[in-house]
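Example: AP-1 complex subunit gamma.
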Amino acid sequence: MPAPIRLRELIRTIRTARTQAEEREMIQKECAAIRSSFREEDNTYRCRNVAKLLYMHMLGYPAHFGQLECLKLIASQKFTDKRIGYLGAMLLLDERQDVHLLMTNCIKNDLNHSTQYVQGLALCTLGCMGSSEMCRDLAGEVEKLLKTSNSYLRKKAALCAVHVIRKVPELMEMFLPATKNLLSEKNHGVLHTSVVLLTEMCERSPDMLAHFRKLVPQLVRILKNLIMSGYSPEHDVSGISDPFLQVRILRLLRILGKNDDDSSEAMNDILAQVATNTETSKNVGNAILYETVLTIMDIKSESGLRVLAINILGRFLLNNDKNIRYVALTSLLKTVQTDHNAVQRHRSTIVDCLKDLDVSIKRRAMELSFALVNGNNIRGMMKELLYFLDSCDPEFKADCASGVFLAAEKYAPSKRWHIDTIMRVLTTAGSYVRDDSVPNLIQLITNSVEMHAYTVQRLYKALLDDISQQPLVQVASWCIGEYGDLLVSGQCEEEEPIQVTEDEVLDVLEGLLVSNLSTPVTRGYSLTAIMKLSTRFSSVNRIKKVVSIYGSSIDVELQQRAVEYNALFKKYDHMRPALLERMPIMEKTASNGPTEIVQTNGETEPSTVEAKHPPPVTQPTNQANDLLDLLGGNDVVPVIQTTIPTKPVSAGGELLDLLGDLSLSGGPAPAPAPSVPTSQPPFLLDGLTSQPLFNDIAAAGIPSMTAYNKNGLKIDFTFERANPNPNIAVITIHATNSTEAEMTDFVFQAAVPKTFQLQLLSPSSNVVPALNQGTVTQVIRVLNPQKQQLRMRIKLTYTHKGSAVQDLAEVNNFPPQSWQ
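Written out as structure tokens, the predicted fold is:
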């Protein structure tokens, strides 16, 4: 048989291929020749054939049929054969294949070989792909080589020990005696690998961490020698002595100094020296400074040192390199909660980063800017952020608008400023605001009694300029319906009042009903606003005509409203003023409105649950039945009289949400649920006709539990018992996010076996804030009449860093007190 071609010739031949098909043909032809050679047990050219096979593997072609040939090469006595054999084993084998166990004995023999280079090959292979079984069998040989005087072998043995510890953590103590002497080595390669080994051991074992804290002075001395030593051509990188070793030592110091006063005190001086003496003109110096900053922030360092670290990050913000600016912004975002005042000094530089062309830098700068907002700088920061909102890309508008809303709610210097700021957001980025912005602004306006005339006038002007921003149009429609009489009377004191007639106001609202830009929700707001104006304006006949027209609308929601309003005009006109009177001051609740999502055994279905309103006053049964008849037809159930003593309220006050237009969910209210016989109230309502959904909740001393902890998202369960039904467990979920980016569109779903019944109420938010800065809560009620062990399957969906994430989990470790 002729000699096979050399590897160099094969590479040259493959590179001449003009098409993918031609290259495949060459590879297949050569693979066939290699297989034939393997079958004939050709020892002469086995090394050459395996080398060619590895090259094909690197190109992405299958090379698994060469695995056993690698083992044969490893067993050879020739160094050239062993070198290719071990390389092939590292590339073609892993611990998922049983073949790798066949080489354990060969590696053991080579670890005891008389030639250091053969020993080095065996160490590299074990450290690369050794399974837990191999590591257990060969750990003794690795530990022996760790004590040898040969620095070439010691550095390879240290890295191999790192792999052994990762695979078999209980073998860590075996390497403890050998690691004590590694830091006294002069060879930088051994020092580097020994620091990596110490770092791995400290991260995996609190006992090792406590044991190695006494090495801090020695590590400080090594680091000091590195920064104070002169030029060393062997280790110099851009004028800095062995930056790789410096970075590794700084990381180890960070682990050793965390939550330890003595260790932190011992390293304060050297950290200050590194921070002040390191050259920043080259990227190498910046890498060391960044590690220094992270170490200063993680240990219990002095306040002056922390200010120095933040000033270094401030200098990074002025760097021309985008990556360095991004790293600085991310680091400042982590430290802003603990060193707020120091970060505030760099506020102007951070705000300038909002104008950066790079979207990643822009997003980090926006998040950091919102974190810097406080009561002292709210006006200036909001001015910059609103300017950013005007000019930023659409992908930023939703997050920026949400941040402005939260900051304004927390730090607003006055109600007028608060209202002006939110209206500015709605006029510039109304289409991007989140769903809860409309009810939140409505609540703010309602509670600012002295600003009603000013607000309705501003909103009316905005409506004349632009009706494309639907949230703005919805808020304006609601306010005009509530305070239209103030608009027409011209009672505004804050600015010059405008002269508006009733017909002009109605023209604008009717225009919204027929506009192609209006969504069905907006049309519902507009129709309800027109209906409310029937008690505030004198143009009742015109309003009747408009309402009657929409009684035959193809939009079922709009049609239902119009039919109900027509019935008010005809049959219940005496009740209309009470029903349509002005809204009282609202209380903010965590609920998003009366429509909750009820889950029974994993199936989602909408259910109308009582919203939280002021306690209803007792009304005569026949009048209440008339109102039910208005909503649901003739088939009604007599209303159960409440026994809760209540304070009298204005006539019709208990009916404030009857028509649905005042729903805080930002949209029209859902159709009422069918009447339920009162003899057997369903579980989901539990006879709540005379009491709120969550009546007395009694803490039962049930321990909390962690149901889910993955990818930075943590779900904790806390438990309570509901009175008077002890069979109902009330579970409150608490979702937190430890990552650097918030989790949006967060949805928690749950399912239980058929012997249970489950009710899942609305969450407090659909955004889980980053860095554990907030918690999303949600209430689950579980009926367990048979007192069986509670089991639950949960489904989590959310968006994180622009990617949709979905995960399932089983929860079977509920505390017995929660279900017994």
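The longest helix spans residues 20-39.
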